[in-house]
Every structure is written in C-alpha cells, then in structure tokens.
Amino acid sequence: MEAAVGVVGGGPAGAALAIELARLGVPVLVITSPRPRRRFEGLSERTVALLQRQGFAHACATLGEAGERQAHWNGVASRYNREYLVERSAFDRALSDDLRVQGIPVLTSEVRSVQWQQSHWQITCGAQVVRVGFVVEARGRAAPAGQTRLRGPASLAVARFYHGPATSDATAVIPFADGWAWLGRARDGRRMVQFTVDADSVPGAGHQGLTSLHQQVCADIPEVAEWVPDGVQADGPAVARSCDTYLRDDLAGAAFLRVGDAACGYDPLSGQGVFLALAGALSAAAVVRTCVERPQDAALARQFYSDRLQGVFAEKTALGVAFYQQEQRWADRPFWQRRREVLPVPVPTVTGLQRVRRPVLADGWITEQEVLLTPRHPLGVWRVEDVPVPALLDHLRQSGASLGDYAAHHQLALPQVERAALWLQQVGALAS
Q1: With contact defined as beta carbons under 8 Å apart, do 27 and 3 qualify?
Q2: pLDDT for 375-409, tens place per residue?
Q3: What is d(CA 335, CA 346) in angstroms, rounded to the nearest whole number?
Q4: What sign does the CA torsion over 281, 285, 286, 291 have?
Q5: Which residues on neighbouring strands pair with residue 368, listed in sequence order?
Q6: Tally of CA atoms within 13 A in the half-sphere of 325 that contains its CB
Q7: What is the pLDDT of residues 271-284, one digit of tens each?
Q8: Terminal-to-terminal C-alpha distance of the chain
Q9: Interatomic CA distance for residues 333 and 134, integer angstroms
Q10: Beta strands 28-32; 106-108: pairing state
Q11: What is the share, in percent, of the chain residues with pLDDT greater than 90?
C-alpha cells in the first residue's frame, strides 16, 4: 500500500488534518490503532461547532447533550458554561467512520515501526508494510517522544469509572490541596472522577495503590463525594496516565511533521486540547502540502509551522498559569506552587511597528509575504478580515485614498475593509 502522505494516528488532530489534505487534493492514508481509550472528556460548544464545520457528523453523533459545567475555583462556585460529554473510544471510532465516508482510506492496525528508507517512509503495521513519501505523527501522547524542548511539572491524571442511576449530563472542576478534580456524569448513569496530581505523589503499587489513593481523595473532598454517593458503584480499578505540559523539539523535519499531542501537550485544566488540534489542521495541511508538492519551499513551511506552534503554546500555557494563580487557598502547597510558574517559552520581542517578510498561509500553501509586526503580534499579521494589512496601509497613506476605493478595486466588502482599517488604527499604524 502506498500514499503521498501517511497520517499515523486517527484522533482529532490526525483526522482533521487528513480531511484538510484530501480537500487540497493530496492523497492521504490514515493508520489508526485499535487501542481503547476508556475515559470521558468534555468538549466546549466551540469545539463541537468546529467538528460540525469540518464534516465530522459521525463523531458529533457520539456526543451527549450539552450539560452544565460547574466550577469551584478560589472558593467561588460558578455554572456559566456548558460542555458536551464524550467517551473517547466511541469518539475515535466515529472519527474513522467520518474519514471513510469522505473517501479517505483508513487502516486499523497496531503500528510496529516507522522507518526512513532513503527515499520514502516504511510503516510496518502488523504483517503489512505501507510506503509513504511524508509521515505525520499524530499518535498523541503515545507517540515516540523524540527531543523535548520544554516540559512543565510531572503530572498524572488518576481516573476511575462508576455507574449509578440515570441522570443528566454534567461536568465539574474542583480544586483541592494537592491537585484538582474533573468529574463527568452521563445521563445513562456512567460517571468518571479524575484527579490531576503531582506524579511523585502517586504510589507505585499498581492498580491497588492507585485505587486506594482514588478512594481516599473521593472521601476527603465533600464536593467530589457528592458525585459518588451511596448507590453509585465503582466500575473497575483506578488507572493513571501522564498529563504533563510539554513542547517537543522535533516539530517538523524532512518529510515529517508532528501534530496535536504528538507535538505539544497542554495541561488538561485548559480543556482546549481537542479544539487546538482541530483548529490547527488547516495550517498543518498547508505545511504538508507545500513540503510534498513544492519542496523548494519546504524549509519556509517548516519555519512557519514551528514558529506558529511555539507561539500558540506560549499563549495557552501562560493563560493556564494565570488560571492556577487565581486559586489562592493552597498557594503554598507544592502542587500549586509548581504550576504558578511560567514556562520559559522563547517568544520574539517587538518594539513599535515593523514590516518584514515572513512565511504565511495563503490559498492552501505556505508562501512568503510582507507582514506587520506589533508588540502584541511578534510573529506578524498579514491579513485581517481577509484583507492584506500592509497593502491596505500603503493605500491609506496615499493622498485622497478611501476605503471604498480599496474595497471596489480588490472586490472586497466595504465592512471587512473597514474592520481591517480599524485594526490598523488600534495598533497605531494609522492616525485616529
């Protein structure tokens, strides 16, 4: 079996990328492992909207109803947001169904090895060998780690399933002295209670030690105990998985790209892992397409991808730290102290406004264009509302120039040009 691109991993990142590549006309094969993921996750409303826009009808059908999301943070209880509860094994199988419906071949097999053979990648799947010109590593946290550029505190998510009476879908976030809990409750009575704690605080006695720890935490925290009252039965032992925050070093290489959790992992408190995996598919697909079909621009595409991913990582991890800092009740406890420190992500510093040429995403390719750098946008802004802002800035600096003239000449709607001009004014490029 052969393909131009092989995506190893069929979770949200791999599936979304494969769909975008197929839409761009790049032949792609997805190889997904049958490895079960028995756990609940909560998806935000904007994540579900993005799934719908990208054509994941089967995946959306696995979701429950949008349930109430409770948050108990710094002693304040809130119920402002709603979240969709999803069981990951069913969700991942449905992603594969969506790929097949859209004509993308999916091979379900355990990947034994991925090796470069002079001019192509050789992927061994059981007794079958697949040859591809470009590999996308999308196996999430199970992917071979490679080099790690940055890593946050070592964390474990310790989870256990329960089953009780039928109820309504709901989720909750509850902090405690040595970590925080995420709770998911499905209308069929299934419940999951998961604690995120320091890895060195978890006993190494296998399932028995994990289960004892889980029982103790459930008993010690009143808000958690309410989710597992009398009549709710445990469904199996507690299990643990790593949930560190990290940024890999080898994000992109010759005929190789990491996406999703294979590239960087976010603290589960952010709840943005699936959204960021889906949202990054469009730019990642353009990077792969450029590397495959315009190899002369491959270095430019890899620079674009690494710069953008590092920028998103810096932004999201800083937001996570700020959220940890809001919880003041246990600020002196090791768990909270470690997560109140910002990771040293190298981000370029920009003073004033600058115009430079940088790689950008344009019409499904990575090309080099003039962008505007600002202190808040150190990687550069090329377009606002699909309007190239450097070109608009040049136009508006001409005597007698008007937004209407620019919109008419470039066949753009006047309101979108007005919003782009307002952005230029806000960053100080135009006089108010």
Answers
A1: yes
A2: 989 989 999 999 999 999 999 988 778 999 999 99
A3: 25
A4: positive
A5: 359
A6: 9
A7: 788 999 999 998 99
A8: 60
A9: 46
A10: parallel
A11: 74
